[in-house]
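DM from R.C. (forwarded with permission)

"hey, sorry to bug you on a friday — could you get me a structure for this? deadline for the figure draft is monday and I only need the backbone to look sensible"
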Amino acid sequence: MVGIVLVSHSNKLVEGLKDLISQMAVGVKICVAGGTDDGRIGTDPMKIMSAIEEVYSDDGVLLFFDIGSALMNAELAIDMLKKWLTTYKFKDWTIHSDGSAVTQEEKEQRALEIASKLSDNNVWKSHGRPIGIQVLKNDLHLEIVDFEKDSELNEIINEYYDGVSEYIKNHNFRLFFQTRLFI
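My reply, with the result:
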């Protein structure tokens, strides 16, 4: 069934509209992306992207928006999701297991498939629940490198973890953030 995302500069407006539509379209997944996180008037591409992920199905998503910049942010959210997965997560995926070349379109389609499955709260029941390797392999059909089965990689990761843990402890840090740039 097609999901619906209501995008507006006003959260109150889309919450009320969702209530009305829910009474007429029973069983349809409806999500809103209204206003900013701090309650101001405006739109937020990240809220829109999360809403799309929440209601996504193979049948698609209908986006309804109030004025031009809401549409631009909705389009931006969709593009951000596709680009992030295809650029960073699928950058080395160039050949299928049968030897045929992987197209950009296939990467984008797979990105949407994975995002929709991972954002399905009916399956996962929580955003905070860990997802095990077997679920990723069997249910999402992802290829996962299990470093516990690779003794050399396991040793490297454990040495790194021990080094970072010791550094944090010796400097009495309560919090420690590491980025790819080690900043």
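R.C.: lifesaver. The mean pLDDT is 81.
me: no worries. The longest helix spans residues 68-89.
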